[in-house]
Structure formats: C-alpha cells, structure tokens
Amino acid sequence: MRFCLFTVFFLVPYAVFGAFFNLWDFNERYIVQGEMDRVLTRPLNSLFQIVLERMELESLLGAVPGLIIMLYAGSRLSLSFHWYDVFVFILFVIGGALIYAGIFISLATISFFADARTSIMPMMYNISSYGRYPIDIYHRVIRYILTWVLPFAFVGVYPAAYFLDKKEWYSYAFFTPVVGMVCFTVSVMLWNAGVRRYRGTGS
Known about the structure:
Elements: H1 2-8, H2 11-20, H3 26-32, H4 35-40, H5 46-54, H6 63-76, H7 85-113, H8 121-128, H9 140-149, H10 157-163, H11 167-173, H12 176-197
Helix pairs in contact: 1-6, 2-6, 2-7, 7-12, 10-11
C-alpha cells in the first residue's frame, strides 16, 4: 500500500501541469506551421498567450483518481494527518506542476534553436515515469539524475515520503516548491532567449 501511495502522488501535479501547460505539439503547431508568427504580433508575452490558447481545464479531472487512491491508501495505512497537511499538499502539488512545466517548457524552446521537425517530448515523458517509483530501486547515478538534473523525483516520490514519514527522504520533500520555482524560472529565461532568436517561418 505504501508503494501504491508513492506511485500515484504524481497524478495530481501532472493533472495541474496538463491543464495549464499543454505544449506537446508546440514544435509542429507553432514552429513548423508558423503559428508562432501570429503569437509574436501581439503585445502580450508569447508564453502567456500560448498557455491561454492551450489550456485544457478538463485535464484537472486526472487528479481525481490519484486523490481517491491516496485517501484510500492513507486510511488503510492508518496514517495520521495534521490540519496544516492540506496546505503542505497544495504546496507540493504546485511545486511538482512547476517542475513539469519548467522541464517541458525548456524542451519546447529547443524548437527555436534546432531545425528538426520531430519533438523529444515523448521521450522525456517516458523518462519522467522513472520519477514515479521509490527512488532507492535505481542505481545511484539514476537517483542523482532524477533528483538534481531532471528532478522528476520531486514530483511524486519525495512529496509522498513526507506523508509516509519516510525519514531518509523527508527533508527532500520541502525542496519541492524551491526546485519547482527554479525549474520554471530557468525555463522562462530559456524561452525568452529562444523567442529573441526566432526568425519566423519565412526567414
């Protein structure tokens, strides 16, 4: 049951990410088909415009199964919760969603610099699945990558460790919002650099 809670926590931040940062077809739609030219003719921030255009709030429903399973697992494990854990949970979810957003926005910016028509996002999605399982099942090199290079472990494993009171990962959980803000800030900087380099489909 503990393993179950570890593996489903990511569903909630992933649902938030999917609702607000649906960038899977960014390369095909905005670069190859030239819709980025249209976006850049407007005075609003280009990333903000694309987020608004691609928003799919129905994706938030994807969080429901995760919440149900976590509540069920918590009751079966007789976990004790405090009144402030709701706010901690929300903080972890926001941090996890920002990590997803930061990584995938950074990937989207590759389209500004590369001529390739194919996206590496599907491959990165597969890599992200490694962060859904207890991180001690991996080699230490993989653990390091999933913690500090592609920090998917902060999306599910470390936040879940807080609620499971898993001491060796407990402190990592509180880095989740910080890692999320860093990832997102870096991705916005990369995006802005990519936009400055963008020359349009006619260039």
